[in-house]
Amino acid sequence: MAEWVGIGKRARRCYGFDEVALVPGKVTINPNEVDISWNLAGRKIEVPIMASAMDGVVDTTFAARMGELGGIAVLNLEGVQTRYDNPGEILDKIASADKEEATKLIQEIYKKPIKEELIAKRIAEIKAHKVIAAVSSIPQRAERFGRIAQEAGADIFVVQSTVTTVTHISREYEVLDFSKFCAQMKVPVIVGNTVTYEVSLALMETGISGLLVGIGPGAACTTRGVLGIGVPQVTATVDCASARDFYYKQTGRYVPIITDGGMNRGGDICKAVACGADAVMVGSAFARTKEAPGRGYHWGMATPHANLPRGTRIYVGTTGTLEQILYGPAELDDGSQNLVGALKTSMGSIGAGNIKEMQLTEVIIAPSIQTEGKVFQNIQRVGMCK
């Protein structure tokens, strides 16, 4: 599979969402009758879409609404929600500032220390709506924050960093032992991010309940540009799904994988599931909702190469409600709304009655399919040709 790129160096060809397409099946199913639910540590979740743990995307109100609609929104425990008693005021200031002012403002805002008492308060605010409360932190704070979150009633704890491995070497700080951490936690632990078979398998062996897949594809992520690191999401998802399946055959324990980043249209989500994902994590699509605390802005995840704790601020506009993004009706023709409807329709056209069957879909390499025969769309600047 690899090709020579120079003397002594070979490179493997990898693929992203725009380079592949799905082949329709021999049987079709009524989209209203397909099952898109997935399971995490024995818990059935109706919608296989999670909202990213970004300050511009998820606050307690957003998390509650996402839960009511059947999905999960992950609250960042290291952002404004746990640093300020009234985070809405802070986010409004950022959203109304110009580019230069916003950068300075963000630098100042994240200098304020995290108030641990606010962790329990935010979780209680989500749980008051009787929905799943999912929260996240980086590995260095996972033990302390995990203990607090668990006692406060959190249902899922996410440990997330730019690149996650079981073996991490550092003399500067204490390294998180994933096996010990998962054994101590009484709630499901989702860990990420990774993109390779070997690391996925090693992480599953520590006892994690779910795995986030994706390095570099996010709308606000600078990892590929700054560090040159990343694997296109189609290949990353297929490789990590293969590790999941091997681990399941060996142990009988199924660890779902969640493709994280690089998806802003329904078609991307359909392709992620067809490549092996059990669920997906989305940021930019939800940053556009009227319920998003960032008021149309999108903040990236914390990265070791960035001076800002939450990465880059990108304005993506406000287009529709959270319910519209998930269930429609779609007012836009670019595939960014009615994500659940798109997944169900795709599954019906392929003949997949559930997520497991969708993962068996035939995938073809088709880099020109996005523009093939789209002459009139290009002229009229509609759909994806805008």
Structural commentary:
The chain starts with a strand and ends in a 6-residue tail after the last helix. The protein has a single domain (17-385), classed as TIM Barrel, CATH 3.20.20. Strand 6, helix 1 and strand 7 form a beta-alpha-beta unit. The radius of gyration is 20 Å and the shape is globular. It is 35% helix and 16% strand. Helix 2 (87-96) packs antiparallel against helix 3. It is built from 15 helices and 16 strands. The relative contact order is 0.17. The protein has an eight-stranded parallel beta barrel with strand order 6-7-8-9-10-11-12-13, surrounded by five helices. Strands 1-2 form a two-stranded antiparallel ribbon. A two-stranded antiparallel sheet has the order 3-16. By secondary structure, it is an alpha/beta fold.
CATH homologous superfamily?
Answer: Aldolase class I
- Would you state the CATH class? Alpha Beta
The overall strand count is 16
What CATH architecture label applies?
A: Alpha-Beta Barrel
What is the fold's blueprint, element by element?
Blueprint (H helix, E strand, L loop, with lengths): L1 E5 L2 E4 L7 E3 L15 E3 L2 E3 L3 E3 L8 H9 L3 E5 L10 H10 L2 H11 L6 H12 L6 E4 L1 H14 L3 E5 L17 H7 L4 E6 L2 H8 L5 E4 L9 H5 L5 H19 L5 E4 L5 H9 L4 E4 L1 H4 L9 E3 L13 E3 L6 H6 L11 H12 L4 H4 L4 E3 L9 H6 L6
Parallel strand pairs: 6-7, 6-13, 7-8, 8-9, 9-10, 10-11, 11-12, 12-13
Antiparallel strand pairs: 1-2, 3-16, 4-5, 14-15
Helix pairs in contact: 1-4, 2-3, 4-5, 7-9, 10-13
